[in-house]
């Protein structure tokens, strides 16, 4: 018989689970074009390394850290679970996060039988530090997404520092930097030497254009990494995954990624300006990422109409504080133009 917490669990509604049929996919924050790789490893009869040496070395160099501060896993999603598994006792300990934010924090907690507490974000999607501090009793892990998904904003750096101070000796602070390549100057990786309880999550799924690879990283001090190594699966990365990841993290791969980021950031600027001219747009939230959160006059109708036209966005109406909002991933310039043309037609119809 299934565990009760699993029987009644609502799974994370990923873009692929939600489906849709179209040719303009702006719903999963992926890079819109494929990057080409050729496998250099041709034999697969042996098990892979648990932590592939070249991947760890190249990522630690990229992040400006030491190899013993880096752990690689099946996406940052596995990193979320590894921290919970290592530091939270089901039925006793809790985690805390601040909605609206990434949905996997709650799903992972429910799956593992760990209580989760929420402290809703306040104005401009910032932290309610007093409310967080009041809820910390029994909390072992605090998850902060920065830049935040789906709102696209950065949590104030000074507030993160205060949060690190109030969690000392109580909880780990896990900062999810899945989108940090779009604002690299905002990373907190340089803070690890000063805060033993800071953990940072990264991924190759977004700016590196490797969502299909499922490769993520946990950055932390050695005592935390050593504990995570106790609960990670024996062979988290298949040999082809490690092969492609190491190529993506080469000097050429990092240069290519940064060129792609510049391209998407330029498309984001164009899209922001174009959206601001539409009468069906009520509010555009500032973004430091490869997506934009937009409040529309009739978001449900717009979402459905675009869906039927093959332009797939992400509906955010069920998230707290996001009534009327759709999240738009930044695509190619052609995809952005197709979206704006469709929205302009809807704007005229609604005039």
* Shape estimate: globular
Please write the string of helix (H) and strand (E) elements: HHEHEHEHEHEHEEEHHHEEHEEEH
Mean pLDDT: 94
Overall structural class, as computed from helix and strand content, comes to: alpha/beta
Rg result: 20 Å
SS summary, helix count: 12
Strand content: 15-25%
Low-confidence runs: none
The profile of the biggest β sheet is:
7 strands, mixed
Order of strands, main sheet, comes to: 2-8-7-6-5-3-4
Number of DSSP-assigned strands: 13
Report helical residue fraction. 25-40%
Could you give the distance between the termini? 56 Å
Layout: helices, strands, pairs:
Elements: H1 4-7, H2 15-18, E1 24-25, H3 53-63, E2 70-73, H4 75-87, E3 94-97, H5 104-112, E4 115-118, H6 129-134, E5 139-145, H7 157-167, E6 172-176, E7 198-203, E8 216-219, H8 222-231, H9 239-248, H10 251-275, E9 281-284, E10 291-296, H11 299-308, E11 311-312, E12 314-315, E13 325-329, H12 333-349
Parallel strand pairs: 1-11, 3-4, 3-5, 5-6, 6-7
Antiparallel strand pairs: 2-8, 7-8, 9-10, 10-13, 12-13
Helix pairs in contact: 3-9, 4-5, 4-8, 10-12
């Amino acid at each position: 018989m299934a565990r009760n917490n699993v029987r009644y669990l609502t799974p994370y509604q990923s873009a692929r689970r939600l489906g849709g049929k179209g040719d303009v996919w702006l719903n999963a924050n992926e890079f819109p074009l494929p990057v080409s790789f050729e496998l250099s490893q041709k034999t697969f009869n042996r098990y892979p390394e648990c932590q592939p040496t070249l991947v760890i070395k190249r990522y630690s160099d990229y992040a400006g850290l030491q190899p013993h501060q880096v752990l690689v896993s099946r996406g940052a999603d596995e990193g979320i679970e590894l921290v919970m598994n290592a530091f939270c006792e089901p039925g006793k300990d809790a985690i805390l996060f601040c909605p609206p934010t990434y949905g996997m924090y709650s799903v992972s907690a429910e799956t593992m039988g760990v209580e989760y507490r929420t402290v809703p974000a306040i104005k401009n999607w910032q932290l309610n530090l007093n409310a967080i501090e009041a809820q910390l009793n029994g909390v072992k892990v605090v998850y902060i997404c920065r830049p935040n998904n789906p709102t696209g904003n950065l949590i104030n750096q000074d507030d993160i520092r205060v949060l690190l101070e109030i969690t000392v000796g109580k909880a780990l602070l896990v900062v999810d930097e899945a989108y940090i390549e779009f604002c690299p100057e905002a990373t907190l990786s340089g803070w690890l030497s000063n805060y033993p309880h800071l953990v940072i999550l990264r991924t190759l799924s977004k700016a590196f254009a490797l969502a299909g690879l499922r490769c993520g990283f946990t950055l932390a001090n050695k005592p935390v990494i050593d504990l995570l190594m106790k609960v990670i699966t024996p062979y988290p990365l298949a040999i082809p995954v490690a092969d492609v990841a190491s190529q993506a993290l080469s000097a050429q791969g990092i240069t290519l990624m940064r060129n792609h980021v510049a391209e998407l950031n330029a498309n984001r600027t164009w899209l922001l300006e174009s959206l601001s001219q539409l009468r069906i747009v009520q509010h555009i939230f500032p973004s430091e990422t490869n997506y934009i959160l937009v409040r529309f006059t009739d978001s449900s109708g717009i979402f459905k109409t675009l869906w039927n036209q093959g332009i797939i966005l992400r509906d955010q109406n069920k998230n707290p504080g996001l009534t009327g909002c759709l999240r738009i991933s930044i695509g190619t310039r052609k995809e952005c133009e197709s979206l704006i043309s469709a929205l302009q037609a809807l704007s005229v119809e609604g005039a």
